[in-house]
From TrEMBL, chain A:
Name of this protein: dihydrouracil dehydrogenase (NAD(+))
SUPFAM superfamilies found in the cross-reference section: 4Fe-4S ferredoxins, FMN-linked oxidoreductases
UniProt keyword Iron-sulfur, yes or no: yes
Pfam family, one: DHO_dh
Keyword annotations: Iron, Iron-sulfur, Metal-binding, Oxidoreductase
EC number: 1.3.1.1
All copies of domain 4Fe-4S ferredoxin-type, residue ranges: 332-361, 366-396
Organism for this UniProt entry: Hymenobacter montanus
GO cellular component: cytoplasm
Family assignment from sequence similarity: Belongs to the dihydropyrimidine dehydrogenase family.
From TrEMBL, chain B:
Protein name: FAD-dependent oxidoreductase
Organism annotation: Hymenobacter montanus
GO-annotated molecular function: iron-sulfur cluster binding; oxidoreductase activity
UniProt-listed SUPFAM superfamilies: alpha-helical ferredoxin, Nucleotide-binding domain
PANTHER family: GLUTAMATE SYNTHASE [NADPH] SMALL CHAIN, GLUTAMATE SYNTHASE [NADPH] SMALL CHAIN-RELATED
Classification via Pfam families: Fer4_20, Pyr_redox_2
Domain (Dihydroprymidine dehydrogenase): residue spans on this chain: 15-122
Sequence ranges assigned to domain FAD/NAD(P)-binding in this UniProt record: 137-428
């Protein structure tokens, strides 16, 4: 059996799965239940200044029949008394000494930071996470993302915390910034032991079409909230990668954002995270999802021959390059596997209207055909095809040449003028504009199905 | 067998004849509509005789625009709701859905369709209306799917329309013929009321047109006459004993059933003669009415039955037994039916022949003849110059529906020889356009 345990900047945990600081870690009851279910650690719901929450706090983004592909909230930090939280942290630590309990903190003055760090330390917290991320409610009061967006202020607060902290300090970063490595570097300069990212992204998840107000609606009105859930994973992954690749950040990363199964977690790990945190998925499905996450991770490690998490943390990083370093001689071409094709012709219409007119329809069959000379290998058709492995992208270059944009630039071999012979699309065939007119008139186009009126001509096959 | 006990109340009847395609709720409609791939040049549209833009209305349902979905459906087919419930979707749209090729359940197009149309029917939302009056009048004979569809389209084109119907209710065989587990009378009539409220044509019920004089009066008063008269009674078999009590035609039996539900008596041992869809229906219906033993007797082999496979499956599922390669010779009994004498048959080179000396008697107390509907030949003779083909079908132009008497147009069963509701609805809409073209020439 592979070893799932981690030592994250000195914080030990039986597995890399932590609950993020959020409603699932609001109380000792929930955290104990989570540990009982198999979670390795929990970042306690942020402790700090007293707050009051509104009623109607969450909004969701549904995609077709899928609920909560995106989620947002306008909640603040913990609204429970500090003393209750501290007492419960102590209780949890006594019962689960080998699990990670991290106190998430957010206060204002140097004195307040000193006090709250000391108090959580005494309660037995294994580490701290400084919440410089919350994008609503707290930033207006000069906390949360207001700090996270000001590297100097961030660094100063980290320094205050380091003055008293005897346990590892993680700085949680806000994604509401153009370059995530700036606050990461500030955290490092301040002496932090690790970073975690991302917190939620400023958002409006939707607008009520009848009440003319954004969700979630509070008495007919709303405000911007913080976005999270499956939809934010791509943004989180990119930011994790940016921090992991930056030569000067060099801090352990706790990956957060859109993790809901083992695959999402492995992706974060492959891009440099060495622990992961989960909020929305636990809010959606409950703590039970941990069983699938650990079993999936274990299975993956067995199949890959990885013994510990550290065998693959950051393993994908060498393959994430700036665009200019990609091989321009590489070429793939779409290939349709006829026996699998169900004839939906989504690939045809996608390539025809949204790509490079490289798919044609032939009479007598619904299976489309790739026009290889025209295919630029954009992948679009293979992405829209509803059948697994029905359209594959096959390598068609010899695999012997390797030239990058960077090399071409250095060799003076790049197009420079508008009509440059070397420009990419210059030699690619495009149909004459007017060839578009009426091209699909005999097809039963959505929205103008064959009208049985004698006015429309009867559609002929292909 | 007796899977069903004889229903004695309306409640028990509804239980035995529970809807095969019950209405969807919003959640189910949302989930099902989300599966649709929005195919290009979608095969489902091509397979729909009325050409409903299926991916379009499914997408409209998914985005919460049920009203728009209903509009899309009705624009192509005025029997949109009925069709969603009674169409043999397995061999039409759903049978063509690309999911079949993946061995995945096809989209439940029929149920989604009725989901959208029921919404507007229930709310009475106005989607259509009569066109600017053009001063011309059209008489429609028969308020079946063909007649009503023609009436709607003609009203939309600005014609004054009067419909003459022999029976007391509109929708033809939809309310007098289709199996009760496919659609209820209430639902059928609700759509009819909705259409009439939208388009405002007049219907004279209990008004059979039966004489040359009546037709002459119509020819005088109306610019065109649309024949949506469907087919007639069940064909006679011409067998000895056919007049015995409890030997009945399937169409007549079903018409009773649709109107009187559990008050219709069925035998304990029933023999249904025929291999078409109507035979399957009559057999299923007998079983659901509590018959203990239902036998479906067909002249040829099982594979040669005209019925759709799923209709036979439906009958088998309620305990109907097939008796193949037998031909009825005589209806036995003394006043009341007591059995059918059959002779075994064999098929050689496509020809059925009787096996000499193989007669046997299958006992029963009811015989239902599902041997096809006769054409309305006598009535059609009253129309001057109107020609029919060798099978008694009205001859008319395939695009305009115009018959050999230019004032007369026809669609539906009377023209196609007997198809489905959807065919009648689609043809009649097209024919209404044909009438319009003729009258605006
Ligand atoms: C038992 C049975 C089950 C069926 N099941 C299905 C099914 O599940 N799904 C499906 O899609 N289709 C089914 N069909 C077929 C479908 O009902 C018909 O194809 C469709 O109703 C034809 O429509 P129509 O308007 O041409 O004729 P009809 O529905 O027959 O309507 C003709 C109308 O004209 C009236 N009429 C006739 N002569 C005159 C006259 N001289 N004066 C005034 N009025 C007159 C009749 O009373 C009737 O109302 C079934 C048919 C039968 C017999
Ligand atoms: C309702 C809600 C409340 C949250 N409260 C906090 C908080 O108090 N402190 C904090 O650091 N992050 C908070 N977060 C952010 C989460 O910890 C996490 O960073 C974010 O949700 C992304 O992870 P996910 O995609 O798994 O949800 C909150 C998130 C939600 C949905
Ligand atoms: S890869 Fe792109 S260009 Fe090639 S066929 Fe597919 S959609 Fe068209
Ligand atoms: S998208 Fe896939 S299944 Fe659909 S027509 Fe193209 S190749 Fe076939
Ligand atoms: S064939 Fe099926 S999946 Fe495709 S558009 Fe029609 S219903 Fe939708």
């Amino acid at each position: 059996m592979p070893d799932l345990s981690i030592n994250f900047a000195g914080i030990k945990s039986p597995n890399p799965f932590w609950l993020a600081s959020a409603p699932p870690t609001n109380s000792g009851y929930q955290v104990m239940k989570a540990f009982d279910a198999g979670w390795g650690g929990a970042v306690w719901k942020t402790l700090g200044v007293p707050v009051v929450n509104v009623s109607s706090r969450y909004g969701g983004v549904n995609y077709r029949d899928k609920r909560l592909v995106g989620f947002n909230n306008i909640e603040l930090i913990s609204d429970r008394p500090l003393a209750d939280n501290l007492r419960e942290i102590e209780e949890v630590k006594k019962r689960f000494p080998h699990h990670a309990v991290i106190a998430s903190l957010m206060v204002q003055s140097r004195q307040e930071w000193h006090d709250i760090v000391r108090q959580s330390q005494e309660a037995g917290a294994d580490g701290f996470e400084l919440n410089f991320g919350c994008p609503h409610g707290m930033c207006e009061r000069g906390m949360g993302s207001a700090v996270g967006q000001e590297p100097k202020v961030l660094q100063m607060i980290v320094e205050w915390v380091m003055e008293v902290a005897q346990k590892p300090v993680i700085v949680k970063l806000t994604p509401n910034i153009s370059d995530i490595t700036e606050p990461a570097l500030a955290a490092r300069r301040g002496g932090a032991d690790a970073i975690s990212l991302i917190n939620t992204i400023q958002s409006i998840v939707g607008v009520d079409l009848d009440r003319f107000a954004p969700y979630p609606i509070v008495d007919g009105q709303g405000t911007n909230g913080g976005y999270c859930g499956p939809a934010v994973k791509p943004i989180a992954l990119n930011m994790v990668k940016n921090c992991a690749q930056h030569p000067d950040v060099r801090l352990p990363i706790s990956g957060i954002g859109g993790i809901e199964n083992w695959r999402d977690a492995v992706e974060h790990l492959l891009l440099g995270a060495s622990s992961v945190q989960v909020c929305t998925a636990a809010m959606h499905f409950g703590f039970g999802i941990i069983r699938e996450m650990t079993s999936g991770l274990e299975q993956y490690m067995v199949e890959k021959g990885f013994n510990t998490i550290y065998d693959f943390v950051g393993k994908a990083l060498p393959n994430v390059l700036p665009w200019e370093q990609l091989n321009m001689k590489y070429k793939v071409t779409a290939q349709i596997h006829e026996q699998k094709c169900i004839g939906c012709q989504l690939c045809y219409t996608a390539c025809e209207d949204g790509a490079h007119q490289a798919i044609r329809l032939n009479a007598g069959t619904r299976v489309p055909e790739i026009i290889e000379e025209n295919c630029v290998g954009c992948n679009l058709c293979s992405l829209v095809c509803p059948v697994e492995q029905c359209i594959t992208m096959e390598r068609t270059d010899a695999g012997t040449e390797h030239v990058t944009w960077k090399e071409r630039t250095e060799a003076g071999d790049i197009p420079v003028a508008f009509n440059d012979e070397k420009a990419g699309g210059r030699h690619h065939w495009v149909p004459a504009p007017t060839a578009a007119l009426g091209k699909e008139r005999h097809k039963t186009l959505p929205g103008k199905a064959r009208v049985l009126s004698g006015e429309t001509d009867v559609p002929a096959e292909a | 067998m007796a899977e069903y006990s004889t229903p004695t109340t309306e409640h028990e009847f509804q239980r035995n004849f529970a809807q095969l395609k019950p209405h969807m709720n919003r959640t189910e409609a949302l989930y099902e509509s989300a599966r649709c791939l929005f195919c290009f040049d979608a095969p489902c549209i091509k397979a729909c005789p009325s050409g409903i833009d299926i991916p379009q209305f499914i997408r409209q349902i998914n985005s919460g625009n049920e009203t728009g979905a209903a509009r899309t459906i009705y624009q192509a087919n005025y029997f949109g709701n009925a069709c969603g419930k009674v169409c043999p979707t397995e061999v039409l749209c759903e049978g063509a859905c690309v999911y079949n090729l993946q061995d995945v359940k096809p989209i439940e197009i029929g149920r989604l369709q009725s989901y959208a149309t029921m919404k507007v029917i229930e709310s009475g939302k106005k989607l259509f209306g009569p066109g600017e009056p053009n001063g011309k009048r059209v008489a429609v004979i028969g308020a079946g799917p063909a007649g009503i569809s023609a009436a709607c389209e003609l009203r939309a084109l600005g014609y004054a329309v009067d419909v003459f119907e022999a029976k007391a209710q509109p929708s033809g065989l939809t309310v007098y013929g289709v199996a009760p587990y496919k659609i209820t009378n209430e639902e059928t009539l609700a759509e009819m009321a909705y259409l009439q409220a939208q388009f405002g044509y007049h219907v004279q019920f209990n008004y059979p047109i039966t004489s040359r004089e009546e037709l002459a009066a119509l020819e005088e008063k109306y610019d065109a006459i649309f024949l949506g008269i469907g087919l007639g009674k069940t064909n006679e078999l011409g067998l000895p004993g056919e007049d015995k009590i409890n030997c009945t035609g399937a169409v007549e039996f079903i018409a009773e059933l649709r109107q009187y539900h559990h008050q219709v008596a069925v035998g304990r041992r029933v023999i249904v003669l025929g291999g078409g869809n109507t035979a399957m229906d009559a057999a299923s219906e007998s079983a659901r009415l509590g018959a203990e033993h239902v036998v479906l007797a067909y002249r040829r082999g099982k594979e040669e039955m005209g019925a759709y496979e799923f209709e036979y499956d439906l009958a088998k599922a309620v305990g109907v037994k097939g008796l193949f390669n037998v031909a009825p010779v005589e209806i036995m009994g003394n006043g009341y039916v007591s059995g059918v004498k059959f002779v075994r048959t064999e098929t050689k080179d496509g020809k059925v022949s009787e096996v000499a000396g193989s007669e046997f008697i299958e006992p029963c107390d009811m015989v239902i003849k599902a041997t096809g509907q006769a054409k309305q030949t006598d009535f059609l003779r009253l129309v001057p110059g109107l020609k029919t083909d060798s099978k008694g079908r009205i001859i008319a132009n395939a695009h305009t529906g115009q018959t050999t008497n230019p004032q007369y147009f026809a669609s539906g069963d009377a023209w196609n020889g007997g198809a489905e509701v959807v065919n009648a609805a689609a043809e009649a809409k097209q024919t209404a356009r044909g009438i319009h073209a003729y009258l605006t020439k």
